[in-house]
Amino acid sequence: GKHVLVILTDMSSYADALREVSAAREEVPGRRGYPGYMYTDLATIYERAGRIEGRKGSITQIPILTMPNDDITHPTPDLTGYITEGQIYIDRQLHNRQIYPPINVLPSLSRLMKSAIGEGMTRRDHSDVSNQLYANYAIGKDVQAMKAVVGEEALSSEDLVFVFV
């Protein structure tokens, strides 16, 4: 009947160990040398979180993992995001610029957000505001990249609205 928080760290090390064991057992490797059953193995762990209908208590998991070379397409973060339906992307570059919390908004996601927002749960316009924020943030990232190439002087007054300090 308790509410339990489980922090799983570091799932990347777990996946690497799984790859080593698979190689030692001479199993046919999958993507980037990881075993083909890694999805099932990770899902078995992650899907222990939740609630049981009719019973008190819950299990909440926060899996933490590193991304080799900050590659979000690496099998471990890719499969984890797919299985868990969401992720919070902590960005090394934001951390190095002392921006805290260093959350990179665009690759962070929640596939379940749509079913948990709106009238009766959050603001009625939550979805519209969220979409507008994401769109403006994406424009800002594009303008920052353009600024690095052409310089701030070449940006239009509309572009300058989106330039990060």
From TrEMBL:
One of its GO terms (molecular function) is ATP binding. This is Uncharacterized protein. GO terms for biological process: vacuolar acidification. It comes from Opuntia streptacantha (Prickly pear cactus). Residues 1-110 form the ATPase F1/V1/A1 complex alpha/beta subunit nucleotide-binding domain. Coiled coil: none annotated. Residues 116-163 form the ATP synthase A/B type C-terminal domain. It holds the Pfam family ATP-synt_ab.
